[in-house]
Amino acid sequence: MGQLSNKRRPIIIANWKLNGTTAFVSDLLDGITEQWFGVHQAEVVVCPAFIHLAQAVNEHLAHSNVALGAQDCSQFEEGAYTGDVSAEMLHDIGCQYVIVGHSERRRFYSESDAQVAKKFDLVHQSMMTPILCVGETQEQREAGKTLDVIKRQVGAALDYCGVEKLARSVVAYEPLWAVGTGVTATPDQAQEVHAFIRELLGPVGQAVRIVYGGSVKANNAETLFAEPDIDGALVGGAALKADDFIEICKAAEL
Ligand SMILES: O=C[C@H](O)COP(=O)(O)O
């Protein structure tokens, strides 16, 4: 992949969102682990729904080289917060990664930058790696505000947690107009924002993996990954079929 691949290990993350039964998840995990064994340049992470995490660990991932992530966590550590799942619970069950600030959480649950920053910090406190999602709406892009939005979203985590924690994180750039729409950002559009995020992080930015998300498919992954600041992908729809997802993972190693 891109010219900086010697410095940053590519990472491909499957976000299965609100999908799957135990049988579906079982088949999908079998399909992925059977095709992704041995040593690989790219790191592969799967993020099932909370209720399928234990199944993933106990029945499929324990002896695989596929890592486990969660799609979200509570902004609270413990106590009377009905329905929540804490970062510590996720660590305890075997997660290594947690997505925070996904645009669907920001949009459908009104999560603020401040709440996302708290979650980001709790994931670190629980010895896992947060995947911080940022991205602009179509209206914001058309108004020329893309970089302002990204600066505000990354800045909230930076201000709350400090640059050292950002250095040990993954950032996912997901323009909302590309999420689940079939419209992918062009490699140039994505590269511009990725380079901007890296610049925002200062010297540590060179070590941070910044992935792109938004209608990534097997047929567009390679050109995106060829960009110097795109270190992998956060994949939704195309991660629901093992063969399609594995094709994207392979493209990260070209
Ligand atoms: O978390 C994944 C993203 O929201 C991308 O979803 P998508 O690949 O279905 O567009």
Automatic annotation (TrEMBL):
Metabolic or biological pathway: Carbohydrate metabolism; erythritol degradation; Carbohydrate degradation; glycolysis; D-glyceraldehyde 3-phosphate from glycerone phosphate: step 1/1; Carbohydrate biosynthesis; gluconeogenesis
Cellular component per GO, a single term: cytosol
Matching InterPro entries: Aldolase_TIM, TIM_sf, TrioseP_Isoase_bac/euk, Triosephosphate_isomerase, Triosephosphate_isomerase_AS
Active-site feature positions: H102 (electrophile), E174 (proton acceptor)
Transmembrane region(s): none
Uppermost EC category: isomerase
Cell compartment(s), UniProt: Cytoplasm
Record: residues binding substrate: N15, W16, K17, G180, S215, G236, G237
HAMAP family: TIM_B
Record text on subunit structure and interactions: Homodimer.
Protein's recorded name: Triosephosphate isomerase
Species in which this protein is naturally found: Marinagarivorans cellulosilyticus
